[in-house]
Sequence to fold (426 residues):
Amino acid sequence: MNYRYRRLKGTRDVLFEEVEQWHWCEDRWREVLERFGFGEIRTPIMEPTELFVRSVGAGTDIVDKEMYTFLTKGDESVTLRPEATASVVRAYLENGLARQPGTLKFYYIGPMFRHDRPQAGRLRQFHQVGVEAIGSASPVLDAEVIRTAIALFEAVDAEGLTVLLNNTGCPVCRPAYLAGLREWAAGRAGDFCATCRARIASSPLRLFDCKEPSCQALLGTYPPILAALCADCRDHHRDVRGALDDLGVRYTEDPTLVRGLDYYTRTTFEITAEEGRKQSSLCGGGRYDGLVEQCGGAPTPAVGFSLGIERTIRHLYAEPPDPQRGRQGRVDVYVCCLGTAAQRYALAHVDGLRGFCRVEVDCSGRAAKAQMRSADSRRARLVLIAGDEEIATGRFQLKNLGTGQQQAVAKDEVLATVREVLACEG
RNA sequence: GUGGAUGUAGCUCAACUGGCAGAGCCCCGGGUUGUGGUCCCGGUUGUUGUGGGUUCGAGUCCCAUCAUCCACCCCA
Fold:
């Protein structure tokens, strides 16, 4: 309506039941990630702009048109992170973690920012939970990371998902392949659609993404990069698949799967919802063996993924909870206060209950009936009632909403009585 | 950046061919001086997104503008 302030386009408020859905997922995800050996890392939400330009890549949509970039008072160019991998790599180097033994495995969870047009399943501020495993080139680690992503979906009972797998080569084989592809495509540029023509020079791999039937037909005649890998990449891909087979992970090879970030090498994968809504890609990731070096570190292989929280929750629940029908959280004891003096009286004598159960003191000043209604909608098990009469006699009325029974309880015995009733109701 | 839809009460939506702006939900009060879910009665809530135009008369028709949603694109 016509309030003074509105939320920014592409942002959302999460409240009531929906917050509970988020907590439910986050709790499970943290547990799974710990079990797979990942430790949480919390990096800043803003970073030097250059970090993302160099890692995600100038020329990508994310960098070219979707970043929240601004100048600080000190004329420093700062960007709200559009993704977290670059930040984790930066933190890895800046904290001297390259000297730590073995593979470092981090997970993160938090908001990301991309300034594109909002749409179903697409927000300007959205949230990801993701993983980065830094320090090993083993294809077995790729499989473990993919298995971790699947475990995340299993933990929240997500169904109907497909794992798409590809290998986009490495600095040894990709340049030659790209050159060949570019030359081939340039020779028949007239047969491609306008966007594809523009891509031939800049990012020829993305030609495979085009949905245009004529372009697809054309590309169908050209071998995908998967068929042109060098020996090392071919072995790597074979071993990733083998390790996935060992784990019993089902996947579909998709030679057209190209991720839109420049830093990926070799393995790329995506987990998508099979049917229904658009924006069906719930999770994407892959190997980025060149990124650490590019950020100033020693050559260090790494692999990771990120999972969209909003998209995943949307996949889990057919209908988003209606905020209008939402309720504040459940309580154990609801305290109805009839008058201001009663509010003071109740607050003081109920304080001890907070040591072992959830207590709501109603300071609304509404009629008794309205307060009882709220007690019911908060699903309280017990109601304490205080009014002038109770203050005068030093008692409370204690009503059990399950049985409907009510009794007077001396104010000094409230704590013990409530504890006893709640305990025996389990 | 491109295209398509929609804007009416806090929410979801009605309102015929242009003719008194309504319903359900929610909320509040009463039925019970101070007692929940079900029930009954009553009540509050509006610059019909905004600004122009046509008309005796506009929520309805026209123009502009803003906002939101959806799709392309991209991605999570």
Summary: The two ends of chain A are 45 Å apart (CA to CA). The mean pLDDT of chain A is 92. Chain A is about 35% helix and 20% strand.
